[in-house]
Amino acid sequence: MRQLITMLFMALSLTASAQSADKLYDEGKQLYDAENYTAAFPKLKAAAEKGHKKAQYRLGRCYDKGRGTTENDKLAFSWYEKSAKQGYAKAQYQLGKCYKDGEGVEKDKKRAFELFMQAAKQENADGEFAVGKAYFKGKGVAADKAQAKKWLLRAVRNEKGGKEILADLRKDAAQGDEDAKAMLALIGK
To answer: What is the spatial distance between Cα 111 and Cα 141, in angstroms, rounded to a whole number?
Structure first.
């Protein structure tokens, strides 16, 4: 009986902890979205420290962009990595960017591609675009125009972010970016 009570208490404690992490995240996200980064940061940090994957990602963004705290690439990388390990696509994409650009970690184009692919397989538009671009340019993976076309089309057709990606690609092409022009030609846009 004592063991049952102890187990029940532990289960309730874990549930309360998870709920408080969710509540902290929700409050922090609301403040973050309102661009009140100074108030958002401690709430996101508390939720992230409790293991909340979205809070970990957003805390990474805070460190990445210096929002509510001092910019710190290594801490941004660390929080993105924690979130990415929990399968959060946005964090996988951002972690891939860290590896691609050598921000907070040594450059590793192959690892960047792997992370972009993890995000892309979850229908993350930025991940899909990054995979398409990697195949297009042969960065982190062998160049393959058929795969580039497939992933670029998935990115621009993605309901969450596809229109923005296409608009940015067109803007870059209009400003003379030869890669952007070639990618648009490849996908017939």
So the answer is: 10
- Please give the biggest Cα pair distance in the chain: 74
Describe the crossing of helices 178-187 and 145-157 by its angle, rounded to 10 degrees.
Answer: 80
Q: What is the pLDDT of residues 121-148, one digit of tens each?
A: 999 999 999 999 999 999 999 999 999 9
* pLDDT per position as a tens digit, 45-65: 999 999 999 999 999 999 999
Handedness of CA 50, 51, 57, 63 (dihedral sign): positive
The pTM for the full model equals: 0.87
The topology under which CATH files domain 15-87 is: 1.25.40
Give the separation between CA 99 and CA 105, rounded to whole angstroms: 6
Neighbours of 73 (CB within 10 A): 15
Q: Which amino acid is at 170?
A: R
Q: Which of 113, 111, 182, 119 is nearest to 154 (CA)?
A: 119
